[in-house]
Every structure is written in structure tokens, then in C-alpha cells.
Amino acid sequence: LPEDREKPVQVNAQRMEWHNQRQQGVYSGDVVATQGELRLEAATLTLYRGTNGELTRALAEAGGELAYMRDLPNLDEPEVEAWAESIDYHPAEDKIILIGQARLVQGEDSFRGHRLTYNLTTQDLEAEQAETGESRIEVILTPKRSNGN
Amino acid sequence: MKAVTASLQRLLNQPSHRKIGGLVALALLGGWIVWLQDFSQSPPRAQLPQVHGEPDYYLEDATLKRYNAQGRHHQTLEGKVVTHYPNTQLTTVDLPRVHHWSEDGQLWILSALEGEIREDNEIYLQENVRLTPINPDSAYTPEFATQRLWLDTQTETARTPDPVSFSSQGGLTQGLGLFAQLATGQIEILEQVSSEYLTEFTSRNTQEQP
User: Fold this and answer.
1) How far does the CA of residue A106 sit from the closest CA of chain B (Å)?
2) B199 belongs to a structural domain
3) Which of A62, A127, A52 is nearest to A92 (CA)?
4) Using an 8 Å Cβ cutoff, are B145 and B125 in contact?
5) What is the pLDDT averaged over residues A64-68?
6) Model-level ipTM above the cut of 0.95
7) CA of B128 to nearest chain A CA: how many angstroms apart?
8) Cβ–Cβ of B186/A10 closer than 8 Å?
């Protein structure tokens, strides 16, 4: 939800490593990060902090399974779900970058590609294939049925 | 003035008066010596804890500088009262505060209400234990808090199995158990980790709220 962006980010995991030189926290073991309706699940999560300690970036990376993201853009819209090898969240820009076997689904629409960049507020989506030409972009848009047919 | 001296002379010539005069002089001398005593110092601790046997020495407001085998000053320990017990080769420290410089120059500050320096170069801290890695390049200082901590000066590691909290500006983490490698600046919270972070929006909103 739009107001979720102003909420703190909660993280739960089995372990956390703090790297003082890099001022970075790395979570591992069943990592779940939430911010309102936004939910990230991954094997590891690396948090980057700004000079005043605020969270500037959260990079979720897959272990065996792909990293997972779910969000509810608005109350009257279907949930958005996404999977990728890495999910890179930039809170200040409301931006989520999905890289590696990226797939995003909302209702009956789905998008595939090597790299998907999704805006949590505007719901803009930008899809890119891998430079090697693999994992071409695939978009499936299901026309909305008008009443009666 | 001559009359006064003459009458004092006459008084002192009598034997009994001479004795009294001597006593008065001694009393004055004693009073002067007592007056010289510096009463600003608190009296030494009359009763030292006997928990570890008979202590052989204790220090007040002490600073201990420790050097490793290569002669590098790697640790300074300050204590309100430092008491040494020969039977157990144990030194207890009230209000210990440890500055530890790791091999690469990283400074760590540890403090607690009570501490012990043990035989095998281990420092044990308990109650209100704080572990703070100092990073001059960072605008904020993270702090780890727990109830007990074992600092192994030899391996430059610190550990506890107890609940731990890790706070810094804009973030709070809690978990169970800690293992810190002072040499590399890496600190691990071992189990049941739960964190909350402000983002740029939340921290800006938090500041704007009255």
C-alpha cells in the first residue's frame, strides 16, 4: 500500500552478521523482511545503511529456491508476486529490481525476463533480457472481461 | 612584652608547670600533624570481599595497560577498584572499561558493572555489558548489549550465549548469542534474530513529528 513506504522495515532470520568495516548487516537462515504489506523471503538478506544509519538498500538473494516478493499495491487491486535469483529493494525510490529467472505475476498477467524493474507505487514495470540473449522477455496480459461476456 | 616574658619565665621555673607546658606542646604538635593529614581521600576499603580467598592487593581508580608478546599495546583496562586474589590467580574489577585495539588498529570499547581478569588472559564481564566497535568513518556508532561476555584477548574474540541487543541510529536488532571477531570487525548474532530499521521516509517522518 502507498502508506507502507513510511513504515519501518522488519527483518526476522536465524542469524545476523554485522560487518563493522563495511557497516553492513547480513541476515541468513529463513529470512523474512516486511514493510507493511510488502514481504521479501530469501536465504540471505544484506542491508545497506546510509551515513545516518537509515536503511538505503536491501538485497535479498536466493539459496536453493528463488527469492520471493509479495506486495499489495492497493486494496482494490490483486496482489503482486515475484520470484528471482536476487531481489534488490531501494526504499527511497520505491524500486524493486529482480535479477535472474525473474518472474512477476499480478492477477492473470505475468512477466518474465532476466531483469525486471518494478515501481511499488506507480506499478511501472521495465523488462530486460540477458545480454547473452538468453531468457527473452515474455509478457502475458489477460484482457479484462467486460460485463456480460 | 618584657613583663609577659618574665611572668612566663617565672611560671615555667616551677616543676609542675614545666610538665604541663610539655604536655600542651605535645598536644599542639599532635594536632598540627593531624591537621596536615589530607582528609580529601576516602578511607581505604576496610573490608575486601573474601569470595576468592584472601586478596593480596587492591587498587583504586586503576588503569592497566597490557602489551602482547610483540610488545604492542593492545589493551587498556580501567577499573574503579581492582582486587587481586593469589589463591585463584583472579583479579576482580568494579566498573571495568576495556579499550582493545585489534591487529589492524580497529578500536573496541567494552564496559560493564563487574569484571574479572582470569588466569588464561580472558576477561569476563557481567551486568550491563556494552560492546562498541568504534568506526571513525561512520556517522553513527553501533552498540551491542548483553548480560555476560567472555573476551579472549589471545584470539581477539568475544562471545556470549545470552540474549543480545544491537542498537544503532535508525535500527534495533535483538537475538540470542553473540560471537565477535575483533580482528576482522565481524560480529554475529547467533539465533532468533529480529530487527527493525527506519528507512529514509520513516526517519524523516520521525524527525518531523513534534
Assistant:
1) 26
2) yes
3) A52
4) no
5) 91
6) no
7) 21
8) no
pLDDT surpassing 60 at residue B203: no
Q: Is B52 part of any domain?
A: yes
Residue ranges making up the domain that contains B16: 2-36+48-208
The rounded distance, in Å, linking the Cα atoms of B97 and B132 is 11
Q: Do A19 and B186 touch (CB under 8 A)?
A: yes
Q: Which of residues 126-165 of B touch A (CB under 8 A)?
A: 133, 135, 138-140, 142
Is residue B42 a part of any domain in this protein?
Answer: no
- Hey, is the C-beta of B175 within 8 angstroms of any chain A C-beta? yes
Question: Domain for residue B41, yes or no?
Answer: no
- pTM, full prediction: 0.78
Of A27, A47, A54, the CB nearest to B203: A54
| B85: CATH | 2.60.450.10
Give the distance from residue A114's alpha carbon to the nearest chain B alpha carbon, in angstroms: 28
B22 in contact with A, Cβ within 8 Å? no
Domain count, chain B: 1
Nearest to A89 by CA among A2, A5, A1: A5
State the pLDDT at residue B47.
58
Alpha carbon distance B106, B133 (integer Å): 8
